[in-house]
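MODEL INPUT / OUTPUT PAIR
PAIR INDEX: 1
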Amino acid sequence: MNIICLDMEGVLVPEIWVEFSKMTGIPEFARTTRDEPDYDKLMKRRIALLKEHGLGLTQIQEVIGKMEPMEGAREFLDELRKITQVIILSDTFYQFAMPLMAKLGYPTLFCNDLDVSETGEITGYRMRCKESKKTTVKALQSCGFETIASGDSHNDLGMIEASKAGFLFKSPESIRSAHPELEAFETYDELLEAIRKVL
């Protein structure tokens, strides 16, 4: 039995923090897991920046409300779900993701939670578990599933390398060159074909 594990941001939807950076004009928000392997360090810096600039969940959700999935993402997901089960494994947060999940037809999503004050200030975050993507893949394997994974960033490498097959998708050159052993694709058609071959 197979199950597909996909990253969300950079694979199915644009990077939320990059879009937020564009809206606020604050370049530091554009730093993502493509640039910073240490997720805790990245999130603590984001939370500090939000506090420094008096920004909170409301402003981020306003940006997300205007975002759309990447062109072809919904169709790609629909095709995948015709042939096997699919789970989105993301280090984002339910408070961010749900409007985008609606536009993707509500695929199954495993992500994390934010701590938010009554005033809307983001004060912290809670991960589901340590190394959440790799841990989830291992848990699925323990239930009898063979996993096939795809993502674009440093935090996707664990689940890709732990799976029976794994692919980079729309990854930056720095990650592709550091992992020449992984096949890398730029279009949904290419990724779908690669997945079909290993099912």
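PAIR INDEX: 2
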Amino acid sequence: MRQINPRAHYLRMNGIGNAILVLDQRGLETHFTANMARALHRRPDLAFDQLMIMAPPRSPGTAAFVEIFNNDGSRSASCGNGTRCVAYALLRGQSQSQVAVETAAGVLQCWREAETRFRVDMGTPRFGWQEIPLSHAVADTASVRLPGFDQLPPAALLSMGNPHAVFFVDVALQARLPEWGASLEHHPLFPERANISFAVVEAPDRIRLRVWERGAGLTLACGSAACATMVAAARAGHTGPAAAIHLPGGVLDMAWRPDDGHVLMAGAVELEHEGTLDLEAFAGAPA
């Protein structure tokens, strides 16, 4: 039976405002539960959008396998801002400037560009309706109208390891994301729910973005949503293959490489505080 390391080192961080809790469990195999994740989130000094658990590496050449929980206890395969925080945790005090981490979405290469700025190769987007996934086939995942939301333009649907719906809207519609976010996240078209992005294209190289994050709600930043928005904007001709994406918490510099289709994301991280947790105190947490 797998064990929980009872004394876990943690870093409470943020990636341009996206609240991230990093737990180092590389010393032992871990078995985290949704109840434990929710219990950690309920403690005010640990509250997070995403919990990144660094477990022992599974693939050669990687430094850790990272399990990801949202603050409602659901799992995620990908978190760009969280991956940058993990890269900070793995590289601080080290001479090298590159590290590879593995998530359920695959192996991600990370580079340190400055003390608190990191770039991540988030891999390639997926556009097939079964890959996203959707509950049924649609004619074109780049332009899908969602029943019940006639006020909104068609959404661009894709996966960055997790499902995304990107709407290109005006400023007035963007302000209504808090009103519609929960319903859109749980729309019947999304059997695994979806991250909802309302994007305003301000220039061919600049987008203003607000995100309702699956399992976390309205957030200051979402890295994988910025990736999805970059891809959707370039496909639709709103931007070129690179743009600055402005979120409430800060700016992410995005690029969609035409040669191999990989999406690269760069931005700042911040360490707020760190310490040690007795995880046994959270293991019996009620649902």
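PAIR 2 NOTE: Residues 155-261 form a domain with the Diaminopimelate Epimerase; Chain A, domain 1 fold (CATH 3.10.310.10).
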